[in-house]
Amino acid sequence: MVSMTIGLVVIAAAGQLFISSKRIFNLQQTQSSFQEQATLLGTMIAGLLRQTGNIDVSSASVVRSHLFRKNATFAADGQMIAGISGTAKRTVATPSGGTLQTFPNDAIAFRFEGGKGIVDCAGNPTTAGTYYQHALLIKNEQLICRPEVGTSPVELVGVTAALSSREVRVLGLKILYGIDENGDGSINDYNRAGDMAAPDWRAILDAWLEVTVQAGDLPPETIRFVIHFSNLG
């Protein structure tokens, strides 16, 4: 009886060690996936947003306000960036289940002319003389790029209702816009879309983005980076 009891204890301990080792391995895999997707996320967003305001060489002599007319998204001719700010409740996964938390839920729309070296949301080449309007936002825990209003979105990062501990979900997106209020080429203030006055949208020099993601049931992490709009100002 004693030997049987000892044997059961040893088997239980070995089983617990296996479970613990497996969880450590999964956490390492999750962290690796997070780092890879975080790097990919920053690269993709930066690449897309830096195209904002691009004008092909053949159009360089034309004023932007004549090329990019106001529409339902952009309130003024020549406005290259528009956005909205808000919040959304999303579930944060935990080892024991999940909790509902509130995250920033911003979106940004931007415009540019196509040309050599300029790509759309899907990475496809663009055409000089064609004017593109894209938007970045969160949908179903994915960061998506919507090429044009009414078109199918391109999924950039994130997995809807992730089934694996190695998959990343996007929980929050916060965008602060750097504004040159004096026209001297320097930033005076950073505001979210809801705090922007109408003239501010045409005085943006850069944007500060905060993207909150979660890999498996690890604690959510926020990736922060600045995008400088070299074609504006």
Which properties best describe this structure?
disordered N terminus, 233 residues, 4-stranded antiparallel sheet, alpha+beta, single chain
N- and C-termini, Cα separation: 83 Å
Helix content: 10-25%
Judged by helices, strands and strand pairing, the structural class is alpha+beta
Share of residues in strands: 25-35%
Q: Indicate the radius of gyration in whole angstroms.
A: 23 Å
Count of the domains: 1
Task: Note the overall shape.
Answer: globular
Order of helices and strands: HHEEEEEEEEEEE
List the helices and strands and how they pair.
Elements: H1 2-49, H2 64-67, E1 81-84, E2 87-94, E3 97-104, E4 107-113, E5 131-139, E6 142-146, E7 154-157, E8 168-179, E9 189-191, E10 204-215, E11 221-228
